[in-house]
Specification:
Number of helices: 6
Strand content: under 5%
Oligomer: single chain
Helix content: over 70%
Order of helices and strands: HHHHHH
Largest sheet: none
Low-confidence stretches: none
Shape: elongated
Mean pLDDT: 92
């Protein structure tokens, strides 16, 4: 158990690093993706770079959930173990396969459909995690420690922000298709600018939440 827990701890650190670092990479690349002074081909190249960076962040945020639940069971603050953990890892493998398939088909109609399927998982997962976390903080079930419940609640908030950022990135593909078909379009560029400005503000909140989750996990202050 000790050996497996240390491996999970290592994986948890790696996933957090790729999540935080990947989001910073996409943030910086977005300045070039949305720059109307650059040619459309150059902006597409930057968008491709953003997607290649983002896939690591996406895999990181997916892996953090099963790793966190497994470690929570080891700590005795998450009651579902045994077959539940096996099922959780099987479902996670399917989710990762879906994310990788969407990445492989990026920029195509099939990729957009796969990404929307990925989004639907989050539509179910986010409220489920929020309900479990709030219930645990108020009545002490299903999670048995406030620090752990708070981590789960904050993680669910990051999924909400991540979902919004995913919408923006998907819109890049759709916008560039329209620009390629119809040429320069001030209205589309203005919409792209509004979306990216909102996304950058959300990104700062995103990073604060990620750092807070990591701090609570390490210090367990309450």
């Amino acid at each position: 158990m000790i050996a497996s827990h240390l491996i999970l701890k290592w994986l948890h650190i790696v996933a957090m690093v790729y999540w935080l670092g990947g989001e910073w990479g996409v943030f910086q690349t977005s300045y070039h993706v949305t720059n109307p002074k650059l040619s459309l081909d150059e902006r597409r190249r930057h968008m491709e770079t953003a997607y290649r960076i983002d896939i690591l962040a996406r895999l990181g945020i997916i892996l953090l959930l099963p790793i966190g639940l497994h470690m929570g069971h080891n700590f005795g603050v998450q009651p579902l173990g045994g077959g539940w953990l096996v099922l959780m890892w099987i479902l996670t493998a399917g989710w990762i396969a879906l994310a990788l398939a969407a990445f492989a088909k990026r920029g195509t109609d099939a990729g957009i459909r796969l990404t929307r399927m990925d989004d639907r998982i989050r539509y179910v997962l986010i409220p489920a995690l929020m309900i479990c976390a709030i219930s645990s903080l108020t009545i002490g079930k299903p999670f048995l420690a406030d620090w752990y419940s708070t981590k789960v609640l904050l993680y669910s908030f990051t999924l909400v922000i991540g979902l919004i950022l995913r919408f923006v990135m998907r819109h890049w593909t759709e916008t560039f298709r329209q620009l390629a078909a119809g040429g320069p379009n001030a209205e589309l560029e203005a919409k792209l600018t509004r979306e990216i400005n909102l996304s950058r503000k959300l990104a700062y909140v995103y990073w604060i939440l990620i750092l807070t989750i990591a701090f609570i996990g390490v210090t367990k202050p309450f």
